Amino acid sequence: MEKLVFTETALLHEEPFTTSEVIAEQAGIEHRAVRQLIRKYQNDLEEFGKTTFEMLKINEGRGRKTKIYHLNEEQSTLLITYLDNTEPVRAFKKELVRQFFSMKSELMKRQTLREMERPTRQALTDAIKKWSYVNKWSYKQITDLICKTITGKNTKQIKQERNVSSDVSGTDIYNSEEMAEYESLENTVITLLGLNMTYEQIKAILNGQTMQFTILRNEDKEKALNVSDQR
């Protein structure tokens, strides 16, 4: 089934919601009828939070706009109890419950991983400060490299794509799979910084390339190659 539950941005503290348009489409009724229900039972719905909406054009280009309500989990669950219990409505109710649960589980997992990653981020910061090749752009270069290894885009690009402001921490917008990979790569980079590799050597290893590390002591070569093999 298509996506029924959304968040405003990719930030991990966003509240999931569905829309009056989704409810109308999935229940097989007119959007106007859903908006009427929302207005009729607005006081009931607002016991679970303020009802919000956005004005969107019905068609592309110039044209009339329509009001699209955003409803959180409690509000949407309550609203659909006011609908006739037809077969499409029953199927929609079950899928909506599943998707709200899945979205909330993902957000909770992201928050947990974010907290677990904090000590690793501090260790990365410390390793960069001790790095022989450190400069004022080093932290940005390293974190952009990790971001691009995971997503194919740098931190600025992924923030723009996921509709968050530039001052937001990059680790606040990764999904749970990306966050787990990010911490794994941080640990890899910490090891490589400790071996005093250059930025280009670190980049090559994260990209899965094989290269000769002429600046490393002989006893360090095996460690570096083992890290490369793990990628």
Write the layout of secondary structure elements.
Layout lengths: L17 E2 H8 L3 H10 L1 H4 L6 E6 L7 E7 L1 H8 L6 H44 L7 H14 L3 H7 L14 H19 L4 H8 L11 H13 L1
Antiparallel strand pairs: 1-3, 2-3
Helix pairs in contact: 1-2, 5-8, 6-8
Describe the protein.
InterPro entries: Phage_regulatory_Rha. It comes from Tetragenococcus muriaticus PMC-11-5. This is Rha family transcriptional regulator. This protein is mainly α and 231 residues long. It folds into 2 domains: 18-104, no CATH class; 113-207, no CATH class. 58% of the residues lie in helices and 6% in strands. It is built from 10 helices and 3 strands. It has a 3-stranded antiparallel sheet with strand order 1-3-2. β2 (52-57) and β3 form a beta hairpin. The chain is elongated.
